[in-house]
Design brief:
0% strand, 83% helix, mainly alpha
Length: 339
Amino acid sequence: MTAGRAVSWRRYSPAAFWRGRLGSWRTRRLLEVHLLVLLLLTAVASAALFLSSRQVQHSAEALASREAPAVQGLAASRLAALRADEEVDRLARMDLIGVAGSGEAYRSQLSAADQGLSRIADRTDQDLGTVKGLLATYSESLALGTSLYRDQPLMRELRLLEAKSLLTRDTVGVAPRLKVLQQTQLEHAEGTAAMGWWQRAGWWVAELALAAVALTLLSALFVLRDRCGRDWNPYLLAAFVLTVLLAVVPLMTAYSTQNDLAGMLGDLRKITEESWRSGPPTVVQQKVTEMSEGVRQRPAEGAWAESVYRGALVGSLLAVVLPALGLGLRLDHDYWRRR
């Protein structure tokens, strides 16, 4: 590089530009302003990062512990009720109604449907009382149709037709009501997993504040070297590295978690659609059970996000403390004690 180019570079370099912009400020006042700006920005960034990360974590926990089991449970209960009807039809075709021990299969399916609805009641705000009442009436009709009227086939057939009507009647039957509940619960799950405008705004605030913190830290390091002849301040360097990590790692974790939630929602949609397919309830029930097992394994794969969230919380606190130590100690040593 020639002498002319070197002079031009020193005159028009970013350092020269920034030195000129700060030239009217006294050094002590300049460092105090940097300290105040850093404290404000890190406080804003830490609060936004904490709230945004916590919201993502809360959505993941709610979907895994409440919404997904409710969607799966409603599908399983509906299929169990349909499976009970299939078992009774099989007994009627084989003329086994009334034979000792022949009704265990359908009774176990009805029990599974009832227990499934009881478990779901704690995980949804939907009213399941009507469906549980209809299911109890349906179970009673099946019990009467399979245990009484052994010598009255017409009455037995009427009872079984009444039970089937309770199960499949449009809009008001057990199966159609459970289908509506499935759709509503799936919409609840989608709302829980979705990132709303407020959440997105929180991430934007956190990222912009962290970017401003990083630039302010660079400016403070420049002032200390240019005005005070100091080496790189270790506290400010550590704060800069930490700021970069806080800007990248939690955001990437949130992005990964949202992808996991989207994948889980896709599986829940498939489970719901599969449970609505026409076909032998036994086959559909087996497919839904296998798909539900895959969904239950998903939260364990994303458990590492909790560690990242806790690390971000500790890092946010350090991001406030480190700049205060770096500039506060330097100001105290060079200026405040000399007043």
